[in-house]
């Protein structure tokens, strides 16, 4: 059990729209081993975003069980979800989600600030930026960086808390093919060298093919695992 970082059993998420109930996700069960890299694929409306929000502790399921790194998270309240999200999950988004007026270093420090970390905060942020090849860009603002460099800052920010899982939502979607390839190489290297458990939500079969397993969703259910 120690090797299982994510354990999902019969996960369901139902949204209420007036008197209508919409099952965005229902009956999904799977496990992810520590150090695995997997991708989640499916057409629009398949439940990919809902599943990512649940796995990333951005939302809670209507029913079912979710154990993240040994902690039961399915029934946590908002404050508890925020705490475990800050400690256990590193996010990389398609749109980078950086503070435009802050330096790369300040952006990477943010999760540590939110977590109340004061000791070695600056050093940890510098090391995270160096690990993605931006040691010479720490004082640059996002507007002074290319799209690929901005995504590297976002990856460094995701890594700085040493999370249990790295979640990447279409991480190459806003990049050209060269920058996208470089970002995937960084993610794959982190998985290999740091044994970082990684979940990638993607529409791109070429990216999915580089991961160990692919979870295919359709109509809110797990259709297949490759």
Description:
The protein has 226 residues and is of the alpha/beta class. It is 34% helix and 30% strand. The chain has a single domain, classed as P-loop containing nucleotide triphosphate hydrolases (Rossmann fold), CATH 3.40.50.300. α3 packs parallel to α5 and α5 packs parallel to α6.
In a nutshell, what does this entry contain?
This protein has helices at 48-55, 78-88, 104-114, 121-131, 147-159, 177-194, 205-208, and strands at residues 4-17, 20-33, 37-41, 63-68, 71-72, 89-93, 165-169, 197-201, 213-218, 221-225. It is an alpha/beta fold. α3 packs parallel to α5 and α4 (121-131) crosses α5.
Task: Please tell me the total number of domains.
Answer: 1
Question: Gap between N and C termini, in Å?
Answer: 22 Å
Overall form: globular
Return residue spans where pLDDT drops below 50 for at least 5 consecutive residues. none
Determine the structural class based on helices, strands and strand pairing. alpha/beta
Query: How many strands in all?
Result: 10
- The number of helical runs is 7
- CATH architecture grouping: 3-Layer(aba) Sandwich
CATH class descriptor name: Alpha Beta
| Arithmetic mean of pLDDT | 92
CATH topology: Rossmann fold
Radius of gyration: 17 Å
Strand order of the largest sheet: 6-7-8-3-9-10
Helix content: 25-40%
């Amino acid at each position: 059990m120690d090797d299982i970082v994510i354990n999902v059993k019969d996960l369901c998420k139902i949204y209420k729209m007036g008197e209508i109930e919409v099952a965005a996700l229902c009956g999904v069960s799977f496990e992810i081993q520590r150090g695995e890299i997997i991708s989640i694929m499916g057409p629009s409306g398949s439940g990919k975003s809902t599943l990512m929000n649940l796995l990333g502790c951005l939302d809670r399921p209507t029913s079912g069980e979710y154990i993240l790194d040994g902690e039961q998270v399915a029934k946590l309240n908002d404050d508890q979800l925020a705490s475990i999200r800050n400690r256990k999950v590193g996010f990389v988004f398609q749109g980078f989600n950086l503070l435009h007026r802050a330096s790369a270093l300040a952006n990477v420090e943010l999760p540590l600030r939110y977590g109340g970390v004061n000791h070695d905060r600056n050093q940890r942020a510098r090391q995270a930026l160096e690990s993605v090849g931006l040691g010479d860009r720490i004082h640059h603002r996002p507007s002074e960086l290319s799209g690929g460099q901005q995504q590297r800052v976002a990856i460094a920010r995701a890594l700085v808390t040493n999370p249990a899982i790295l979640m990447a939502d279409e991480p190459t979607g806003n990049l050209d093919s060269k920058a996208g390839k470089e970002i995937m190489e960084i993610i794959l290297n982190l998985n290999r060298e740091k044994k970082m458990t990684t979940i990638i939500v993607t529409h791109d079969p070429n990216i999915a093919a580089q991961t160990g397993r692919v979870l295919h969703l359709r109509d809110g259910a797990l259709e297949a695992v490759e």
